[in-house]
Amino acid sequence: MKKSLIALAVMAAAGAASAQSSVTLFGIVDATLQFGRGNVSDRNQLGNSGYNSSRLGFRGTEDLGGGMSASFWLEAGVNNDNGSGQATNTNNQASGNPIAGIAGGQGLTFNRRSTVSLAGNWGELRLGRDYTPHFWNLTVFDPFGTNGVGTTATLNTGFTGVTTVRASNSIGYFLPRNLGGFYGQVQYYMGENADPSAGGVEDDGSGLSLRVGFATGPFNVAFAYGKTEFAAGDIKQMNLAGQWDFGMAKLMGQIVRDENGATDADGWLIGALVPVGAGEIRLAYSTYKVDTAAADPKQRKIALGYVHNLSKRTAVYATYAQVKNSGGSAVGLNGAVTAANSSSRGLDIGIRHSF
Amino acid sequence: MKKSLIALAVMAAAGAASAQSSVTLFGIVDATLQFGRGNVSDRNQLGNSGYNSSRLGFRGTEDLGGGMSASFWLEAGVNNDNGSGQATNTNNQASGNPIAGIAGGQGLTFNRRSTVSLAGNWGELRLGRDYTPHFWNLTVFDPFGTNGVGTTATLNTGFTGVTTVRASNSIGYFLPRNLGGFYGQVQYYMGENADPSAGGVEDDGSGLSLRVGFATGPFNVAFAYGKTEFAAGDIKQMNLAGQWDFGMAKLMGQIVRDENGATDADGWLIGALVPVGAGEIRLAYSTYKVDTAAADPKQRKIALGYVHNLSKRTAVYATYAQVKNSGGSAVGLNGAVTAANSSSRGLDIGIRHSF
Amino acid sequence: MKKSLIALAVMAAAGAASAQSSVTLFGIVDATLQFGRGNVSDRNQLGNSGYNSSRLGFRGTEDLGGGMSASFWLEAGVNNDNGSGQATNTNNQASGNPIAGIAGGQGLTFNRRSTVSLAGNWGELRLGRDYTPHFWNLTVFDPFGTNGVGTTATLNTGFTGVTTVRASNSIGYFLPRNLGGFYGQVQYYMGENADPSAGGVEDDGSGLSLRVGFATGPFNVAFAYGKTEFAAGDIKQMNLAGQWDFGMAKLMGQIVRDENGATDADGWLIGALVPVGAGEIRLAYSTYKVDTAAADPKQRKIALGYVHNLSKRTAVYATYAQVKNSGGSAVGLNGAVTAANSSSRGLDIGIRHSF
């Protein structure tokens, strides 16, 4: 006999006792036909997460009384095209990535989030692996949400390394809600090296990041700054982004500045989400340029997409994107390879189902 | 306080709302004492999946209205004798397997199935990692279901490689039910190489497979054909199989033909399931021969087993099998090593518990 | 829409049908700020499991009638500081550990426990990966329960190898309860090598272990003995341990003797748990000495801790420990490195949340 998890409706019927001990199983399975075209080679593949990131997670909250609560969140990325899991990084440094060749042996890790929290009217203290504050603006204010072929050019190059999106060994603090529209968070994360370490790398992989924002009515704007220390040169990420919801369309914009040691990079994005019946049109233009002494590799990217919601949980979607490389850049889309200073085109067609 | 998943009975009580959002946690834990005997070395071990494959899975269906539904299925193989997971393969080629030496580091992957589907009265479209159509006849029409020491000789040699059982990056279509007993499915899967690729391997690991069958009353027969492309030589699998349920016994048979480049292989199986009170006797004879220029390595295998059901979910079982090698073949059972042209014997004794 | 798992209260309401098919999802997320100090190098990190071992598990029991039941238990260790899983060991030998360098690629395995059982009034038969009987006394009768910086010195050195805590491929038998306070278990586990094997290692990793105890009122005492075979020298573990609950304090003690081939080691522990309101003070002194021909490396360790329960499920805690090395020993705490015959200090501050 199979067991079944019950809908929230039954949950409510169970009353206060169960409210104090809810555990939620949740997830997304998003499969994407990906077509990539470049002037060196093309690629067609079944990928995942073209609209939302595929995942399987477990989370829960316990009411401790007096306005206090404890909670946990364990969320694993899933490559549902082939069933493999996704690696995490253990120490915010390259040495915390797995050796090459794991391929189909990569098991599930809680790479997306793995935290325990205490919360009260003073805010939330969160420990574990979590998103970095400096990442949020890149996804919240991008019509393509950092998923699929259409996402911002800023994320094309890996310029900002291991802690671009998440950090392990982090201590985070979140401001309480109900601050009149102000919100914010700060996070410290550790590289966990011996101190002293040979080569002066005891701070490698340690960092500090913060994000502050203001949202009111149709308006939302936020600024973030993060710095990860490395003896070979710190990595810094700054971004200012926001949106205005005009009802018939939601306009979004980002300004991004990154530094990796002595090298700088700049980017920006402008985009829109346009509701159309049960669906939504998505549009964005983004650019990213790395300033090196020799050349300035640059990408300019346009993306156009449509999402059609079959229900709240299930959607079909298509996204087309084109990137133009210059200054020696050779970014290809959806696995295509393109020569320096050439273009690449990509198309995603997919299904997103959440539970 | 521990959370508990509730039985389907409660599910029904929750009415239509929950029917639309059911998520099911399911699994099997099957532990098997395995004894293998050969004339080079013997082996005794605690293995798994001697009767049914051990697994942990999550699946669910959403009613989209109008006869449409969306569903997902994430199912991980579990080596419950030692707690490790099982690797998947990412690209239907040897390079998609993990490097050697992962051993106890092998984590859980959704190697058994990892799919998202849309279904309607027109059938089902399924994307992800799934069984290949050409595999089904080998398990459905084998009294030992491709599990344990008794399973068909066809699967002894690994002759048909990575996509014998499942394929990643697949697009599958299933005929609707209610076609007067006819059933069928077709699947295309991708190797996802660059095009063009060095060495002309851009199609390596891509394949097409189909299965058609007819079932009515006690009778069920199906044919399947699958081909996986490789520059070094395509792999083809064909099989025709069926069963007739006489009530006092269910007779089964298979005819198998495989090709790996220029080399052919042929096999067949005849078997029976005989219900005996709360139990079932299982019998099979199978043979498999590879036709090479130098020699024709061949296995002939007999298997005899009994399954005793303690409940619908729990069974104990025992299976004895013997393989006779000829033509240079040296297949050993349950980890035993036997010299070319020698026999090997194996015994499974186990418990299967499902949830 | 998200699915929610329901509390045991609802479970009961569902009546007998669901009692026969309960599946429980459970876990612990324990995050620990770890500070280590040594005279070579210090280390500060966010770790896990400072009070209880972090885990995610699935377990269930089926009533088979007539006093019989079947059950399963799948429990994975979780490094929630960085989201990675924990490796298991497949064959009770070093070769069953993963290759080096998996780092953030280490996926979830059911390394903590992976078993299927049949039980009746005659006791329980359990197959799979499980704790070794010779481990239990080390954790049950240690105020720090083999977690965190305060745990017994016995576990500092890795002297007893792969099967110290758990064994794979095991067959265990547990005495029934209701034996007037007597309890006991025996376990056989297999290394699963070929027989004969080159080098005479066919028994490597195989072992036998047993534990017997007696508990009545405030008193509990147990003895355990385990032996794992290796051609290079067997590993033996013996321990006698017990506790007396005086109400205002629970006193605990252990005597430990280990052998690894021709080398012996001895240790002992004395400790106490003192309830204080919603909290508990923990104290222990332990020592462990390895007798080698050249020198006798020895650790003496003191540990002091406090656990404050915010609820039954959530606690905050702090533990301080100091180890004194002599005889050439160089054990460091919480990742600190200390020179031979020097001291090391460690501090844990953490949150434990269970579900």
Automatic annotation (TrEMBL), chains A, B, C:
Pfam families reported in the protein's UniProt record: Porin_4
Domain Porin, first and last residues per copy: 7-327
Region forming the signal peptide: 1-19
GO molecular function, one term: porin activity
Alphabetic keyword roster: Cell outer membrane, Ion transport, Membrane, Porin, Signal, Transmembrane, Transmembrane beta strand, Transport
Topology term for the membrane: Multi-pass membrane protein
InterPro entries: Gram-neg_bact_OMP, Gram_neg_porin_domain, Porin_dom_sf
Cellular localisation: Cell outer membrane
Primary site of residence: membrane
One CC-aspect GO term: cell outer membrane
GO BP: monoatomic ion transport
Known partners and oligomeric status: Homotrimer.
The protein's name: Porin
